[in-house]
Every structure is written in structure tokens, then in C-alpha cells.
């Protein structure tokens, strides 16, 4: 291949090289690619994955990163990544590609994802001189192995030093060239139930493992269905679950002594793998088991969800360039690995539709391959011609306003004393601590801290604090949900938020409430659309305000420095956190907390605004952020 690269021909060449492990490992394709790139003088790096010599990643760079500094502190690179493996062929000649009269390329991998792979390779090679001449701009092409089964190649890359070279990435999974900003996480769990075999004519002598397994599944179904309706992420939607397989027993006349089933759990934004595992474990422990029966579980695979924020500059650049709004997708991809494990803002954007992947007759439009090549080419040229500066420094120009929720954004009449009273009752009954150790005047976090200190002082065995915290917070959430039903927006807050949005201010919420409850409250009061991030106590366990870790979570999530942000709140804890973070603070005074309560922060406050002076709040925030 010399001169300009024809994407149709390249796609056919790639499809014709079988890479469907274990029948055909990815090595033949990787070696073919390496030879092609090395013939053009490009830097090629084979990356071992632990799967064997013939199953290594290939990283191709526009220049050796040691030759010149990559822009913006060595983390400004643009990555295009495709997996080299495909699923097994649907018919005998699936690796003998052909184009039909309608212009569709047929063959295994045409859609997922050798078509997209061919498009970004063609875009790169057809602009090779321009790309390689900019040694201050790094473009990479990554070809990973074993995506279809374990994601091993992506995980190895994400944990390597090479991942640190890249800020943004394109993953050309089939999306019909619709930019995809995220998808749910995934968890596969195997449950094994052990009972006791017996003759079916005397079932009382056995323990039926299948019926226990059914009881367990129905308990999971009932437990998750109840809470899932309350966990609808504004972008990713609700979590889901499915039982995919169940096997047990030998024959009709034997009481089954063992049974197992495989369970799929999709994890939405605001949830974590750890919490999802704990939730299932708690349900399993609630099952009454006869003597001699047992349930064991094994998490086979688990990955966190990923979702780019509205303010992500790369997402905005790509969507503006193409002229469409971002979407989400079902399934799990390497994008979640790159984003969660390496901090690379990754957009899924490729030719072909996901409905055409893994089918018997896989095909992709050659016109769409050419369109994808043009889009990738534009991204590469924008990047090397300095438009990338705008993507990456956009956050350095923008400003961030972090709001407390209760009393600042909404009127939220929660019965705090009742929450603490119920929590104290639970702690006393569960941990056998003295009745006079705790008082309702203590915040919930302090109740647990004092309990923990007491147990340590008495040299008592440590309980499972994750479980204790979960119960205490569940108590709080019950009262929060009641308060949410009667919450109302603070008078004038919508005008404040609209003014700030019009001035380009990014906004976030920092609250002790659970993230789920906070999202519900904001949506109920018609102001959820203003906020790019909502961080409740569940995202920073035991580190809520005034602990600066609460605010730091938001700064890191949205990519801001302290000098770009300010904190607005009606409680001294809000301002104390702002001081600890080194960000400007604006205090909202009320009957509960007057100006004297904030006197100790006088030197650090940018403004003090009364709760009846919200017409002045937007101006005060913009002044604090140096916005004219």
C-alpha cells in the first residue's frame, strides 16, 4: 500500500485477516498492521498483555514521545483505539469479504470494528506528513486484544505509562457516527446453591437446591425492583438486571442437591460496583436456609459505568463539529476502561449500527466508512492545527460555582432530630454502646465517629463499618425522601442559575443528602438541568462537608482548579470546606445561621447575602469568580 489509502480496500484487507480467538489469535492482524506502519517510519510499540506472545497490543505513535515534549505537560495526546479481535464467524466464508450492489461491505468484523479501524488508519496515513511534522502534538493509534471476552488489552494499556500520554480518545465502535458519551457499568455474578440430594419419593430427606435458588432470585428481583425505580440517572437511565442461565439437578426423580445461576447487573451512574455487590450480598443473607444448605457467590466480571459530563470540552468539540447531540449506548466497551482507569475522555464514534454487530451476516456501508474517515481526519487536523488547545484549556477559562442544596437551592424541611434519634437507637441496639454516649445534637457522621472511637477505646471487635454506615444512611434517606416530597425552590434561585448559565458558569451541588435523593429533589423543583455534577455523601463516604474531600471530588470530576471556583452555602460547614479547599466562599444568612455564625471566616468570604436578597446573589457569585 503506497500513496493515498483507500478506506474501502483497507477495510477489506483487515476483514480478510481472521482474528477470532481462540480459533485465530490476533497476532496475524497485529503483525500485518505493524509491518504497514513501520514501512512508513512510524513508532510502533508491542505491549505484552499476559495472554501470550501472539496476543499483544500494538500502539502506534505519530512520533517517539521522547523526541519532543507532548503538549500541555505531556498529557495532551489524541488517541484512536480499536480492538483487533472479532467474534466467531457466522458462516464459512465470513473472512472472505465482498461488497454488494448497494455498497455494503460484508464479512466478520466489518461493523465491529474493522470498518472503524480502517477509517481512522486511512485518516492518519492520508495526512501523515502534516501529523508527523508536529512533534509537539501526539496522535496515537491503539490496537487491543481480547476485547470481546475479558477486555484484557484495554486494561493493560489503561494501567500503563503510555495511557498517561493521552487526554482524549475516539473508540470507533458502531454508533452510526452518533457521538456516544457513556454507558452503564456491568457485573456478572454466579450464585451456587448447595442442598442435599435424596430420592424424589422422599423429598423430606433432601434439600432442594433449585427451589432455594428460585427463592434467592425472586428475593433479588423484589429487592432490586423496589429501589431501581428511584435510581434513574439523568443520562444513563435506570439500572437493570437479568438472570441469564440456571442449571441444576440430574433427573425428575432426584431431589437436586446443587444448582447455580448466572446473573447480569447493569450499574448506572451514581452506583458503584462495591455498593452493588454489597446490596446483592445483603439480599442473599436474608434468605432463610434449612440446616445443611448454603449459598455462595462469585463476581465473574465487574466494571464501573462511565459518562462524560456536559462540560467536557472534547465532547462539546466533537458534537459541535458533527452537528448532533451526544447519546448513550447499551453494552459495555473499552471506553469505560480508558475513562475510569486512565482518566482519558473517550467518545464512542464509529461507522455502522450496533444492531449489525455480532450478527451472522455482518456488513457496513462503504459510504459510511468514507464519511467516518472524513470525520476522523477533521479531528486529527483540528488537533494538530491548535484547535485542541480550545478543547483542553476550556476548563481553564470557565468558572465553577458549587452550591449547597438544603437551604441554599431549596427549602428542605427534614426532621434532623428524628434521623439522629433513629440512628442512635440502631447504633445502641446493634453495637451495645452506652445509652448516654450519643446525642441528637451530633451530626450523623459524628455519631458514627464517636461510636467508632468508643469501640476502639474499649478494645471491642470492629464491626463491618460499611454495613453500619449503609444502615445509618438508609435511615437518613427515608427521612430525606419524605422531605423531598414537600420541598420547594428558594425564591429567586431559578433566575440566579439562569443568569450564571448565561455567563458560562459551570455549576455543581455538594450535599450531605444521598446523590439519588439530591437528583430527585433538584428534578422535582425544576432546576436539575443547571448542574453538571451532583455529589452526595455516598460518593465520599465519611468525608462529607466540612471535609475538603467533598469539594475536591467535584473539582477533580469537572477538571477545575481551586482558583476557578467558589462555594455558596447557608451553613458554616459549607464555608469551612471552602476555606480548606482554598476556594472563595459566599455565605447565605438566615434565621438558622446569621452573620455572626460566619464571622470567623470574615477574611475568607467573598460576600454575605441574606436569604431575602437572592436578587443580588448572581452578581455576588460572578464577582467572586472575576466574571464581568
Describe this structure as you would to a colleague.
With 628 residues, this protein is of the alpha/beta class. It folds into four domains: 7-180 and 308-395, Aminopeptidase, CATH 3.40.630; 185-304, Alpha-Beta Plaits, CATH 3.30.70; 398-413 and 488-624, 3-Layer(aba) Sandwich (Rossmann fold), CATH 3.40.50.1000; 416-485. It is 37% helix and 20% strand. The chain has 18 helices and 26 strands. Strands 1-2-6-3-7-17 form a six-stranded mixed β-sheet, with helices on both faces. A six-stranded parallel β-sheet has the order 23-22-19-24-25-26, sandwiched between helices. Helix 15 links the parallel strand 22 (505-510) and strand 23 (533-535). Helix 11 packs antiparallel against helix 13. The relative contact order is 0.10.
TL;DR of this structure?
By secondary structure, this protein is of the alpha/beta class.
- The total of beta strands comes to 26
Number of domains: 4
Whole-number radius of gyration? 28 Å
- Beta-strand content: 15-25%
Question: Topology, pairings included?
Answer:
Blueprint: H1 7-15, H2 27-38, E1 43-47, E2 57-61, E3 77-83, E4 98-99, E5 104-106, H3 110-125, H4 128-132, E6 139-144, H5 152-158, E7 166-171, E8 180-183, E9 185-194, E10 198-199, H6 209-228, E11 240-248, E12 254-255, E13 258-267, H7 273-285, E14 294-303, E15 306-307, H8 313-322, E16 327-328, H9 334-342, E17 345-348, E18 363-365, H10 366-397, E19 399-403, E20 410-411, H11 416-431, H12 444-457, H13 465-485, E21 488-489, H14 493-502, E22 505-510, H15 515-524, E23 533-535, H16 548-558, E24 565-569, H17 572-581, E25 584-589, E26 605-610, H18 617-624
Parallel strand pairs: 3-6, 3-7, 7-17, 8-16, 19-22, 19-24, 22-23, 24-25, 25-26
Antiparallel strand pairs: 1-2, 2-6, 4-5, 5-18, 8-15, 9-13, 9-14, 10-12, 11-13, 20-21
Amino acid at each position: 500500500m503506497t500513496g493515498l489509502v483507500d478506506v474501502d480496500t483497507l477495510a477489506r484487507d483487515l476483514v480478510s485477516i481472521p482474528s477470532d480467538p481462540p480459533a485465530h489469535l490476533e497476532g496475524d492482524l497485529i503483525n500485518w498492521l505493524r509491518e504497514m506502519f513501520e514501512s512508513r517510519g512510524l513508532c510502533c510499540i508491542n505491549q505484552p498483555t499476559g495472554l501470550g506472545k501472539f496476543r499483544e497490543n500494538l500502539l502506534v505513535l505519530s512520533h517517539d514521545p521522547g523526541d519532543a515534549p507532548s503538549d500541555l505537560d505531556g498529557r495532551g495526546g489524541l488517541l484512536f483505539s480499536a480492538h483487533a479481535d472479532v467474534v466467531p464467524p457466522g458462516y464459512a466464508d465470513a473472512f472472505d469479504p465482498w461488497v454488494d450492489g448497494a455498497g455494503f461491505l460484508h464479512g466478520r468484523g466489518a461493523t465491529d470494528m474493522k470498518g472503524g479501524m480502517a477509517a481512522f488508519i486511512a485518516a492518519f496515513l492520508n495526512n501523515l506528513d502534516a501529523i508527523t511534522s508536529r512533534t509537539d502534538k501526539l496522535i496515537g493509534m491503539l490496537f487491543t486484544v481480547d476485547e470481546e471476552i475479558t477486555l484484557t488489552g484495554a486494561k493493560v494499556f489503561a494501567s500503563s505509562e503510555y495511557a498517561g500520554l493521552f487526554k482524549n480518545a475516539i473508540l470507533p465502535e458502531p454508533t452510526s457516527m452518533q457521538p456516544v458519551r457513556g454507558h452503564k457499568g456491568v457485573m456478572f455474578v454466579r450464585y451456587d446453591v448447595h442442598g442435599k440430594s435424596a430420592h424424589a419419593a422422599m423429598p423430606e430427606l433432601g434439600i432442594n437446591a433449585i427451589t432455594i435458588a428460585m427463592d434467592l432470585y425472586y428475593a433479588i428481583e423484589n429487592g432490586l425492583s423496589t429501589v431501581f425505580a428511584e435510581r434513574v440517572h439523568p443520562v444513563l437511565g435506570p439500572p437493570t438486571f437479568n438472570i441469564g442461565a440456571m442449571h441444576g439437578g440430574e433427573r425428575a426423580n432426584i431431589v437436586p442437591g446443587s444448582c447455580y445461576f448466572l446473573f447480569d447487573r447493569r450499574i448506572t451512574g451514581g452506583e458503584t460496583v462495591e455498593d452493588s455487590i454489597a446490596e446483592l450480598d445483603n439480599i442473599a443473607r436474608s434468605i432463610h436456609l434449612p440446616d445443611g444448605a448454603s449459598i455462595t457467590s462469585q463476581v465473574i466480571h465487574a466494571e464501573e459505568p462511565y459518562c462524560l459530563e456536559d462540560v467536557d470540552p472534547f465532547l462539546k468539540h466533537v458534537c459541535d463539529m458533527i452537528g448532533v447531540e451526544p447519546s448513550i449506548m447499551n453494552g459495555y466497551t473499552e471506553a469505560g476502561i480508558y475513562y475510569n482507569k486512565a482518566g482519558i475522555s473517550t467518545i464512542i464514534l464509529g461507522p455502522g449500527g450496533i444492531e449489525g454487530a455480532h450478527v451472522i451476516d455482518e456488513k457496513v456501508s462503504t459510504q459510511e466508512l468514507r464519511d467516518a474517515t472524513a470525520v476522523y481526519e477533521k479531528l486529527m487536523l483540528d488537533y494538530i492545527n491548535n484547535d485542541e488547545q480550545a478543547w483542553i484549556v476550556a476548563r481553564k477559562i470557565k468558572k465553577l460555582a458549587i452550591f449547597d442544596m438544603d437551604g441554599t437551592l431549596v427549602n428542605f424541611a427534614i426532621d434532623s432530630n428524628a434521623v439522629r434519634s433513629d440512628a442512635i437507637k440502631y447504633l445502641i441496639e446493634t453495637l451495645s454502646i452506652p445509652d448516654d454516649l450519643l446525642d441528637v445534637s451530633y451530626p450523623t457522621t459524628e455519631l458514627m465517629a464517636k461510636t467508632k472511637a468508643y469501640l476502639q477505646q474499649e478494645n471491642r471487635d470492629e464491626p463491618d463499618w460499611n454495613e453500619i454506615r449503609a444502615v445509618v444512611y438508609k435511615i437518613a434517606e427515608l427521612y430525606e425522601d419524605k422531605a423531598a416530597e414537600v420541598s420547594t425552590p428558594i425564591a429567586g434561585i431559578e433566575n440566579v442559575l439562569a443568569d450564571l448559565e448565561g455567563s458560562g458558569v459551570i455549576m455543581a451541588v455538594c450535599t450531605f443528602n444521598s446523590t439519588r435523593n439530591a437528583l430527585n429533589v433538584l428534578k422535582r423543583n425544576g432546576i436539575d438541568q443547571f448542574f453538571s455534577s451532583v455529589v452526595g455523601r455516598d460518593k465520599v463516604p465519611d468525608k462529607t462537608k466540612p471535609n475538603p474531600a467533598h469539594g475536591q471530588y467535584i473539582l477533580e470530576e469537572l477538571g477545575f482548579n481551586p482558583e476557578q471556583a467558589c462555594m455558596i452555602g447557608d451553613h458554616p460547614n459549607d464555608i469551612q470546606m471552602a476555606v480548606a479547599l482554598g476556594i472563595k466562599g459566599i455565605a447565605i444568612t438566615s434565621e438558622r445561621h446569621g452573620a455572626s455564625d460566619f464571622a470567623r471566616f470574615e477574611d475568607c468570604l467573598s460576600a454575605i447575602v441574606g436569604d431575602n436578597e437572592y436578587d443580588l446573589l448572581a452578581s455576588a457569585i460572578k464577582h467572586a469568580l472575576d466574571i464581568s
